[in-house]
Amino acid sequence: IRFFGQVLRQNVAWHEEHNGETISMRIVEEFQTMQNGIDDNLAILLYRIISAIFNIAISLWFGWKITLIILCAVVCALIPVLFLLPLQSLFAQHFQDTTQKGYSIVEQTIRSIKTVFAYGGQQTEVELYEKTLENGSILCRSRDICTGLQGSFNWLFVCVATAVGIHFGVAMLEEYSLSILIIIICCLTNL
């Protein structure tokens, strides 16, 4: 916001010397840098899926009965997460739309900088840009709240899986040794 405001406060002669596309590209590049952080999440997602498959397979290998009992409890603990995922995705999409609207405002203002100066619209353009970013900030916070709730339910999942595993595992100590029980609980709480 500061950079955009400072660009609009420059004299018209400054804008004659500097290319408007270069300025808008700099602002867009800053947002693209944030977007590149999202790309890392794809690798993390693949890691989580593959490790979950292997952990479930190892648990089933060591003790299928206790694994199925713990997985039933896990499903119950993860149901709220399934409701939070679409909500989080909706907030992310609206945030991206708001950011795109901000790009458009900056690009349009820079391209028609002489008109903005001629009518004294610098403050109006900054206020419009701030309002757009404020809406995006609210959406971003809402998405972050959903992410926090998701993290809380993930910890609930770990606690429920451990508690169920210990409760039913103690009853099944004739079938499974304590070390097998610990292996199964560690694998399933690491999903």
What does this structure look like?
The protein has 191 residues and is an all-alpha fold. It is built from 7 helices and no strands. α3 (20-62) packs antiparallel against α4, α4 packs parallel to α7 and α6 (122-171) packs antiparallel against α7 (178-188). The longest helix has 50 residues, at 122-171. It is rod-shaped, with a radius of gyration of 26 Å. It starts with a helix and ends with a helix. The mean pLDDT is 78.
Q: Percent range for helical residues?
A: over 70%
| Straight-line N-to-C gap | 41 Å
Radius of gyration: 26 Å
User: What coarse outline follows from CA principal-axis ratios?
Assistant: rod-shaped
The number of helices is 7
Topology, element by element:
Blueprint (H helix, E strand, L loop, with lengths): L1 H7 L3 H6 L2 H43 L1 H48 L1 H6 L3 H50 L6 H11 L3
